[in-house]
């Protein structure tokens, strides 16, 4: 499988990941009382960031499919801002704030995903013929 195909797969995954993120974040923020209760001890900064980032995931994925240069910067920005949110979450946890264990895994997956997308996109877009 070549870099272009891998990037296409990651872009489609980003769009799907973004749609799921917007839906689940919307339920956690604006859903029924039961849905909001099911979130547990969500950290508001992380919850709001993930909700808004979900829209950017969709845009970045669409841009990567079309090999738009700005989409690479969006992927890099998503990796960077996710790392910053993870650091802020770490400070929250270390200072004794309430949290859900699943948030650690979710942040790790999101960060790793956008790092991989950024690396693959950088390589694939350099190798791609100019459009």
Beta fraction: under 5%
Shape: elongated
User: What's the mean pLDDT score?
Assistant: 95
Q: Describe the biggest sheet?
A: none
Which percent range fits the helix content? over 70%
Model regions low in confidence, pLDDT < 50 over at least 5 residues: none
The succession of helices and strands, N to C, reads HHHHH
- Count of individual helical segments: 5
Q: State Rg.
A: 16 Å
Measured between the Cα atoms of the first and last residue, the distance is 22 Å
Structural class comes to mainly alpha
Q: How many beta-strand elements?
A: 0
Describe the structure.
This protein is an all-alpha fold and 131 residues long. It contains five helices and no strands.
List key phrases describing it:
elongated; 131 residues; mainly alpha
């Amino acid at each position: 499988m070549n870099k272009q195909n891998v990037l296409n797969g990651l872009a489609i995954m980003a769009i799907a990941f973004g749609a799921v993120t917007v839906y689940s974040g919307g339920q956690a923020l604006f859903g029924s009382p039961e849905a909001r209760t099911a979130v547990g001890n969500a950290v508001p900064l992380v919850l709001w960031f993930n909700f808004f980032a979900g829209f950017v995931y969709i845009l970045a994925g669409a841009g990567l499919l079309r090999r738009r240069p700005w989409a690479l910067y969006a992927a890099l920005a998503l990796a960077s801002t996710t790392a910053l949110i993870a650091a802020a979450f770490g400070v929250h946890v270390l200072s004794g704030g309430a949290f859900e264990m699943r948030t650690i895994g979710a942040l790790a997956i999101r960060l790793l995903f956008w790092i991989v997308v950024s690396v693959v996109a950088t390589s694939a877009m350099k190798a791609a013929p100019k459009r």
